[in-house]
TrEMBL record:
Keywords annotated in UniProt: Cell membrane, Membrane, Transmembrane, Transmembrane helix
Sequence intervals crossing the membrane: 12-32, 38-58, 96-118, 125-148, 174-194, 224-246, 252-270, 277-299, 311-334
Identification of the protein by name: Branched-chain amino acid ABC transporter permease
Record keyword Membrane present: yes
Amino acid sequence: MTRLLPSLRGIPRTLVFGAALTVLAIGGTFLLDPYRNFQLATIAAYFCAAAGLTLLIGQSGQLSLGQAALMAAGGYGYALTANAMTDAGVTGLPRFLAGMLAAVVVSGALGWLLGLAAARLRGPYLAGVTLALVIAVPAIAAVFSGVLRGDQGVQIAYDGVPPLLERLIAVEQWQAWVAILVAGVVVTALAALARGRLGLRMRAVRDDDTAARLNGVRAGRVKVSAFTVSSVAAGAGGAVLCFTTQSVSPGAYTLAFSLLLVVAVVLGGLGSIGGAAIGSALIVLLPWLLTTLTAALPVPAELAQRLSGNLSILVFGALLIVVMLVWPGGLASLRRRRRRPARSPKPADADPGSAAAPDSTGHSGPGAGGHAAAPDSTGHTAPAAGGRAAPGTTRDAAPGATRDAAPDAAVVAGGPGPRHP
């Protein structure tokens, strides 16, 4: 994209790049069969949640184990709103937009409450709060079974293909289109936020909370904002998943799935949007590949039944260990390593062993071979070739030459920087 549009920089480049990838993904659905389009829609739903999580962990440095609970909040918000709109006689695009709005509002409000706790907690304490949230999802569904329907979940009305596209695409391809469009909007917005002032402040809080506060950054507000943005992305992913599967239930948002989202963003690369896409694809495709491979091999039925639920977990664990040992930055770091420019060779030294003779002032000039010249009558030594002084000697620095290294607060906080006398 940089070569095609070299004049674009910053957020405009991110918007154009996100729109181009969205169009390419929609065009790619014509090359896939219905089941592959269903898988693509599921990947897009997971991509929204994983992108929000990688922004939260990689950019702001806050660990959350409850991303699945936030997806469940978005899914239930979409399902209940869509059913209410159906009862009111509203269908089609207005029903979908109303459900999406309810999903992001419910999940965003829940994330805002988590952010208030995150402003005062850190490390394992914060992880424990988010862990309790995802564990409480089945209990909440059971307590409010009159609305959330308990373990059975909530079913929504069938969303078919619009009449204008009925003869062109199947329903699975239409669901993939909707999922890709939502994922494109959500992920492009997250990438723009990461490149903007909020992303800069989140990285400042992640690197050093105290230093960020001293530079005028309100760390508590930044943490709350990071949790809210991540929760909105997760809620959008839950709504897309509910739209694709036509239902939402607590059994789909378990602790294992929440931990799998964390593993996905770590495998892809923390803080990388591309890494979140890689991890989302692994969540969907790797279990399917293992199931297909197990079915093709002559494995006893009892052993195949045992492997069906545990083999994918074993492979994910082994893959996580290997990636962390070989590529600590995740799979997305492979592209950055390939693009790293080669180091320029050091200039060759001249013929060693020759030193410059003293000039008319009594000072010695630089040696031709990189060796230092002999000290003159004042005790000073001229620099050798390449700017290197003789071993054991120091250069005299003029008083007051030390530069002030105080950080500029205007870069992070957006306000005027400190003035020096």
